[in-house]
Amino acid sequence: MPRNKLKRFSETKKMAAIIEHTDAGAKAAILKWINPDKKLVLELGCGSGEYALSLAEQNPQNQYIGIDIQGERLWYAGKTAEEKKLSNVLFLRTDITYLLDFFNKHSVDEIWLTFPDPQPKKRNAKKRLTAPFFLELYKTILKQEGIVHLKTDSKNLFIYTKEQLKLLKIKPLQKTTNIRKQKKDSVLAITTYFENKKRAEGKKIRYLSWSFSQKTSPPSLFYKILRFFSRKHR
């Protein structure tokens, strides 16, 4: 492993804005940081945290947690949070399949999926962040009226996600095949390095949002199975 990468891994362990999934008491630290009186928003697969950081700057009254498994990417996120002195954003290094290990049921207000890997091969469909397993996971941690946002340059992922929602009889709250045609929105107007790169290539940026809007039910067999498989994949 390159020396520079090793140095960054070492530095992330000292950053107040970053929590490692291997840290003792990681969940307790997250729960202590979360203010139940404030809106809690997650960015999954946040990379260097560009979106979460921008959201945190725009909305200091809310709390944001960016999640990614790549420690080197989170080094940039943590460093930026420290430089900008943002106290309302936190980053967690873990695999997304383990969300239930860190967040209580129905405790999250919104989830952002910003340009997730579209996993174009059919055999990898279950790895897509809008595959049935993940949708159930989001439904479990989201509040009753919680919202999921998807921004992607992948037409196939966009269509796939709409199909999954249709199977669940969920009507999107908003959808567009080209964000540029929409009126300016302070949240959708946020762009990342990756998004700007795709725009320069002539790619259209698609957006889709939805809410599961279903009544909270008592712990089910599915919930227990979901937790079992989340732990099994460690």
Describe the structure.
- It is a single chain.
- The chain has 234 residues and is an alpha/beta fold.
- Helix content is 35%, strand content 20%.
- The protein contains eight helices and eight strands.
- The protein has helices spanning 3-12, 26-33, 50-58, 71-83, 132-141, 155-167, 193-200, 221-232, and strands at residues 18-20, 40-44, 63-68, 89-93, 108-114, 142-152, 174-176, 206-211.
- It has an eight-stranded mixed sheet with strand order 1-4-3-2-5-6-8-7, sandwiched between helices.
- Strand 2, helix 3 and strand 3 (63-68) form a beta-alpha-beta unit.
- Helix 1 packs across helix 4 (71-83).
- The longest helix has 13 residues, at 71-83.
- The chain is globular.
Given helix and strand content, the structural type is alpha/beta
Largest sheet: 8 strands, mixed
How are the strands ordered across the major sheet?
1-4-3-2-5-6-8-7
Q: What percent of residues adopt helix (DSSP H or I)?
A: 25-40%
> On the 0-100 scale, what is the average pLDDT?
88
**Treating each run of at least 4 consecutive H or I residues as one helix, how many helices?**
8
**First-residue to last-residue Cα separation:** 23 Å
Order of helices and strands: HEHEHEHEEHEHEHEH
- The total count of strands amounts to 8
Radius of gyration: 17 Å
- From the spread of the alpha carbons, the general shape counts as globular
- The portion of residues forming beta strands comes to 15-25%
Unreliable parts: 214-219
